Amino acid sequence: MSLINLLVIIGLLLFAGFLAGSESALTSLSRVLIEEIVEAKPRYAKKFAKLLDNPARYLNVLLLVRKGCELTATVFVADYAILREENNGLVLAGVVLLMLMISYVIVGVGPRTLGKQHAIAWAKPAINTADILAKLLGPVTNLLIAIGNALTPGRGFKSGPFASEAEFRDLVDQASESGFVEESEREMIHSVFDLGETLVRELMVPRTEMVWIESGKNLRQGLSLALRSGFTRIPVISENLDNVIGIAYVKDLAKRVHEHHEAELTENIEEHLRKATFVPETKTASDLLKEMQSDQIHMAIVVDEYGGTAGLITIEDILEEIVGEIADEYDDETEEIEWLSDDRARISTRLHVEDFAQEFKSEFSPDEVADVDTIGGLIAKQLGRVPIPGSTISVPGWKLTAERPAGRRHRIITVLAERITQVSEGSDHL
Hints:
The protein is of the alpha+beta class. It folds into three domains: 3-163, no CATH class; 201-323, CBS-domain, CATH 3.10.580.10; 337-419, Uridine Diphospho-n-acetylenolpyruvylglucosamine Reductase, domain 3 (2-Layer Sandwich), CATH 3.30.465.10. Helix content is 53%, strand content 13%.
């Protein structure tokens, strides 16, 4: 190998290492660091402004040229080795292994580490180099990205995938490990990214857990349901749950009753509805959040592919996905069975029906407990709707009354069991 060829190979690898370090430095820069650079060197202000506006333009071309340098150096070494040796297969394997190790150390680990450690110092020559390369090869990278997107299934990224979300996530994790970002903040940042991939159906309140009211009910019945359930917005239906005609706001009903006391019995709830918003269950949570913010809505009805009601979702459901479960002062652990007397007990809705039958000496028919595991599920099945405080059913030997809701969704967590001598069919009264 001639000295010139050797110098070319070394030069290509060193330049590739510089480009790798430049990528690392530029992706490590925050707006604060960039402001420090611009303050010290005002002449860089224009170039860094371009970087902030379109970072992918610079990162894409740095990646292209770096890959070109690594491959060219590998070809030079392989060409020299093949010409001198007869066993080409073995030689090629050795060249690949050698260049892999060299590239990993000289181009990968070393420069990237230095780029992160000295991001400000490295950024100054990096931005000049990236700017020159972007002017020369920018159209080439755009063309290659367009070809790649055309050949790749699904929706591609206009600016390419190289200025990746994964790199930012990694930076967040490193910041958390270093103590610059709290663990809770790290989780929130990751949750924001996940929001764009989370579908509405994953966050919604399912149809079986919805609290609703029929359109023929009067204002008094509507307010009673709102007070007992704890919800301030209640979907109003006509024939069935697949026909949601609007949303009843408690404040609208309360205002009307306050101004006209006789209206609570003479006016129907359907006269005081607000328009319901319908969204497909395949919509992403991030898109829905933007829509809710722009349209100033707090609740939407989720529909499936056949147009039926799949559930509902509120803006709080989406926010919970970011900040975590929103609990209240009543969200505590409840004992499964708490005997108040020989004839009264407070039980958890999570208590299994078999455990209830054994403890309370009650027998259920197979039809009664079909597709039911817990006492909460048993109550919901007999009522045909989500139980609210005051909802009652009867089981052999006992009357079960829904007691206390908990959590933001106001799910019933405790049931009062009272011994009865005669079994009577319970009902839920609005």
